[in-house]
Specification:
The structure is a single chain. Helix content is about 35%, strand content about 15%. By secondary structure, it is an alpha/beta fold. The strands form 4 sheets. It has a 7-stranded mixed β-sheet with strand order 4-12-11-10-7-5-6, with helices on both faces. α10 packs parallel to α12 and α11 packs across α12. The chain binds pyridoxal-5'-phosphate. The site of pyridoxal-5'-phosphate (PLP) has 15 residues, from α5.
């Protein structure tokens, strides 16, 4: 297999690993991390300190649209960094303009603002909705969001998030978010009052475990927004940039949102996010919104490289073929091991693990050289690079089968 070549060159010397272990104490422990030191990525594979190769179906958390260190991004970064790294946010630069133009050309939106993370783009969307409410709706400021939805980790986006575990944290939260059950129109409409400015949602709730919005619900939401003069904000930080099999997820639902946010896959591994808006809604005045790094040409050049690849005629059809293949393979595996539901769109796919702990499967799969994610206790999430091949999927399924068989033996033995 070409992806396993030269693994000896991917080793880190032991002395360096000992030093790295000593340095851990200086890193804030914000998440449990395995004792792995990845230092080489190539396409769909990551290599640890011993040179062991892992087929990576996490890809930086649904971020590496084209896989690890793709040539297109290497080239864009090299060329742009030789030309200009950062003129500052208060000047135009060509990659920024080109990116805004491409995103607007391929969507229903007219204007873009660039930021550095999904949370920051969502924070911008929240501010924009409040500004709009102030200017056009007698100071309306409330935003309806959904239970189990995820919008980020700034204080306002945590306040907008419907994750139960966030509820007690960092009180008092930012005021003005009303959470209602997902896919329930009645509950949503009951939550609307004269101070409501917007409804904000993910069309596939990613962190919740890949839960798609019902098409009827989304149509009804759009009608509800029209009826009550509310903005419809779609958080496509996870679903955008072809992740769900169309360039943007809202295109599956045949709706025209007022505001959309992008992040994760936009930079193909580099930190850039976007807030997109229709012209008639766009109402920031000078000074309302900004950010030192926004629209810096190096990140924009990376995003342009991602988009010019994703927009090639065969790219999205290929990923949809792979989606079908992955889901079929997972369904077979689910039957074989009496697991649960397979769901998702494009290459954002989940497998319910029934009585087996998803975290235990993730750990076991890692032993067999496969990186997976468990968004909750009973769900595995698959978010490979959009360039994944049939061979990679076969390899992943084979490794996952070994992991499941091993767990089963442990449980029976
Ligand atoms: C990941 C994610 C965010 C937050 O993005 P960051 O880049 O981590 O700030 C927001 N919304 C959704 C739907 C996400 O999946």
């Amino acid at each position: 297999m070409t992806t396993l070549k030269n693994t000896m060159n991917h080793k880190i010397p032991n002395g360096k690993i000992d030093a790295a272990m000593n340095m851990q104490q200086h890193l804030m422990p914000i998440t449990p991390r395995p004792e792995l030191y990845f230092h080489k990525g190539e396409g769909h594979y990551l290599y640890d300190q011993t040179g062991k190769a892992y087929l990576d179906l996490v890809q930086g958390w649904a971020v590496n649209t084209l896989g690890h260190s793709p040539e297109q991004i290497q080239k864009a970064l090299l060329e742009q960094s030789q030309q200009l790294i950062n003129p500052g946010p208060a000047f135009y630069n060509l990659p920024m303009l080109e990116l805004a133009h491409t995103l607007c050309q391929h969507s229903v939106f007219d204007q873009a603002f660039f930021a550095n993370s999904g949370a920051e783009a969502n924070e911008g969307a929240i501010k924009l909705a409040r500004k709009w409410g102030q200017k056009h709706k007698q100071g309306a400021y409330k935003i309806i969001t959904f239970e189990k939805g995820f919008h980020g980790r700034t204080l306002a986006t945590m306040s907008a998030t419907g994750k139960d575990s966030f509820a007690p944290l960092f009180e008092p939260k930012v005021n003005g978010f009303k959470k209602v059950p997902f896919n329930q129109l009645g509950a949503t409409e009951s939550a609307v009052d004269s101070n409501t400015a917007a409804i904000m949602l993910e069309l596939v709730q990613g962190e919740a475990g890949v839960i798609p919005a019902d098409p009827d619900f989304v149509q009804d939401l759009q009608a509800l927004c029209k009826k009550h003069n509310l903005l419809l904000i779609i958080d496509e930080v996870q679903t955008g940039i072809a992740r769900t099999g169309s360039l943007f997820s809202y295109q599956h639902y045949n709706i025209q949102p007022d505001i959309m946010t992008l992040g994760k896959g936009l930079g193909g591994g580099l930190p850039i996010s976007a807030l997109l808006v229709k012209k008639e809604i766009s109402c920031f005045e000078y000074g309302d919104q900004g950010g030192t790094f926004n629209g810096n040409p190096v990140m924009c050049a990376a995003a342009n490289a991602v988009l010019s690849t994703v927009l090639l005629p065969d790219f999205i059809p290929h990923l949809n073929t792979m989606s079908f293949y992955l889901k079929n393979s997972l369904e077979e595996l689910s039957t074989e091991f009496s697991l649960g539901d397979v769901r998702g769109k494009g290459l954002l796919v989940a497998l319910d693990t029934g009585s087996i702990s998803a975290a235990a499967i993730v750990e076991q799969a890692r032993e067999y050289g496969l990186l997976l994610n468990a968004p909750n206790l009973q769900t595995l999430r698959f978010m490979p690079a959009l360039t994944i091949t049939e061979l990679d999927i076969d390899t992943a399924i084979e490794r996952l089968r070994h992991a499941l068989a091993n767990l089963k033996t442990q449980r029976c033995g």
